[in-house]
Each structure stands twice: as structure tokens, then as C-alpha cells.
UniProtKB/TrEMBL annotation:
Nuclease listed as a keyword: no
UniProt cross-references to SUPFAM superfamilies, sorted A to Z: FMN-binding split barrel
SMART domains: Flavin_Reduct (SM00903)
Coiled coil residues, start to end: none
Cited InterPro entries: Flavin_Rdtase-like_dom, NADH-dep_flavin_reductase, Split_barrel_FMN-bd
Organism encoding this protein: Suttonella indologenes
Protein name: p-hydroxyphenylacetate 3-hydroxylase, reductase component
Length: 157
């Protein structure tokens, strides 16, 4: 089997967009986690997937959610990516809106916001794969992407 460090070095060379998965709880108006392991899965029905480490501090709460919002981050949202990668959820109100059928917190200025109904959670290795049906979306293609490459976040093209 491949060495862990060699595997991580290879995976760092795959450039990807950055998402923040958000939801609301009774204890907080917003909760979320930064995720780069995100992909479309199916067109019919419209399915996406994202992967989260079992050891992530927010994993137990996320795994109990039925609906979440996938926010595909745009250039200029690096600070939000880092904020949701950690535990700080303070001073986020100015970055949020709730203009969706479930009033879930969505990030303003994202490239896209996808309202997701979690259909399945598949345990694989040290991560879970969350499969979600896209029920609603808003897209802003004029906004440039935020990218993750070789352990660095940068504004895209």
C-alpha cells in the first residue's frame, strides 16, 4: 500500500474549488465546515457528494442534519474558508442570507448556493461520503472561483 505522506503529496496536486457546508441548529444561527472534497454525482436526479473526516470537530452535528447548504466559494472569500475550517462562528451575520425554502443560512457573494437534502451517508475509511439531492440553487457565474491547490487557498482565474 502507498505511504500516507506520498499519498497526501499526490492529492495536494489536485486543484479543487472550496465549499462551505452550512446549516442551522437550535443552539446557533449558523454552523458549518469548509470542504474541498465536493463533486457533482448525477444529473438525473441532481445529486452531489461531499466528504468529511470522522475526526472533524463538527462531524457529529453534521451527521445528524437532513438539509444543508453547499456554498461554492468565490474569489475574495478566503477569510470565510479559514473561519469555517476552525471553530469561530462569530461576526458572520453580514455574510449570510436565508433566502431559501428552508431558511437555511447561505453565504452571500458565493459562486453558488445549493440547498441539499441528504439522501445517504456512506462510511469509507476515515471519512464519510454525504450524498445529497439538490432541491434549490442560486448561481453567479460572473464571480471567479476560490481554489485549493497544494495546501494553499487562492483566488481563481
Amino acid at each position: 500500500m502507498i505511504d500516507n505522506e506520498v499519498f497526501k503529496a499526490a492529492m495536494r496536486l489536485f486543484a479543487s474549488g472550496i465549499t462551505v457546508i452550512t446549516w442551522k441548529t437550535t443552539a446557533a444561527p449558523i454552523q458549518g465546515i469548509t470542504v474541498s472534497a465536493f463533486s457533482s454525482l448525477s444529473l438525473n436526479p441532481p445529486l452531489v457528494l461531499f466528504c468529511v473526516d470522522h475526526q472533524a470537530h463538527i462531524y457529529p452535528e453534521l451527521s445528524q442534519q437532513q438539509h444543508v447548504c453547499v456554498n461554492i466559494l468565490a474569489a475574495g472569500q478566503t477569510a470565510l474558508a479559514y473561519q469555517f475550517a476552525g471553530g469561530d462562528r462569530n461576526h458572520l451575520e453580514a455574510h449570510l442570507h436565508h433566502n431559501n425554502a428552508l431558511a437555511l443560512p447561505m453565504l452571500k457573494q458565493a459562486q453558488a448556493n445549493l440547498l441539499i437534502n441528504i439522501q445517504n451517508i456512506i462510511r469509507q475509511g476515515d471519512h464519510d461520503i454525504f450524498v445529497g439531492l439538490v432541491e434549490e440553487s442560486a448561481v453567479y457565474p460572473e464571480r471567479a472561483p476560490l481554489l485549493y491547490y497544494n495546501s494553499n487557498i487562492s483566488d481563481g482565474v
